[in-house]
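> @MW can you paste both from yesterday?
MW: sure, first one:
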Amino acid sequence: MSDTVEILDPRALLDEGEPSATFDLGAPLAGKVVGLRLDMSWRSFETVLDEWQRLVVAAGAQPRLLVTGERIGDEGVQTRADLDEWSRLIDCGVVGLGN
């Protein structure tokens, strides 16, 4: 057994000329509904979403938060239904670990 633990850096380093991880709606954010999805398996993301909500409101848009549940069983069926409905109610969304 080792006395050290190696922690991997999850950030991707982009080479010059590589596409960035940004997205442009091609229109102002003001007046849009911006979906923000929280997966309860990564609770610290709540802090990130607090900041996203602040920025979305400051840009004149309306945040719409969705907290997803399990992916299997009866709760998985409900999660898929919630995601389906949420996706119809938003103009764009911020999801996943790539934020």
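MW: second:
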Amino acid sequence: MNMVDRLNALDRRWVFLLMGLAVAVPILWIGITGNTFPETPTPAAAAVFKAVEDQPEGTRVLVAFDYDPASAGELQPMATALLHQCAQRKLKIVCIALWPLGGNMAQQTIAEVIRADYPAMREGEDFVNLGYQAGNEGVMKVVLTDFKKAFPVDARGQATADLPILQGVQTVKDFPLLLNVSAGYPGSKEWVQYVVSASEGKVKMVAGCTGVQSPQMYPYFPGQLAGILGAIKGAAEYESLVNQSIGGDVAPKYREAQRRMAPQLFGHLLMVALIVAGNTLFFMGRKGARA
């Protein structure tokens, strides 16, 4: 049996073992050393960072948590980095959700970022979680005319009309920046279609999406969308920008996307190598059969 025949007859379990090593070794290496691979931000990710960075201190921003725990692997690092940058810039953060569990994701992110690292920020004055509101596009239409009617109370049950952070807010147009983290419907696409397009240019929007949803959103950049983060790769690029701008020691929770990129990188490289090897063996075998 020649070498080509031996490779063609290779037990597929060796391939599974190689893939296991390609994923496990980078995870162990990062766990031991604490290092992550450098990221080169794309224009779409850099635009998200710039959109937040350009907001003057004290600006109100609206953050829509349109995802649930099933998509947290891709989206939670984005949400964490977004609130981290907003808090560092001393922006006033208003969180909402159009997904039933989105309010819980907002509360979790607030606890991990604001309550843990920015204790001077006061709930109701510097940040607030308005929780989940049912209605999908209906809610989006209402916030264009009366924001507090769409969200009459916050997650604590306090009337939004009494919250200092929302004083002067009549419609969604009073938020110069909308940050949306989305796993599907309703999400980024609907925010663009029903809010951004109807806001007469008064609402700038950036979005973080899952890998499945991202291809639908890239055509909106850089028009209706000022920036976009696509899947865990976009989250890692954005994380690196935020961490570099803040400097100093970076907590592991603010490097989660970068940490997750390493096994994905080596897994993809192995897949490409196996595809090349498989096609090479195929053509070598066909050439040998003709001979």
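> thanks! The first strand starts at residue 60 and ends at 66.
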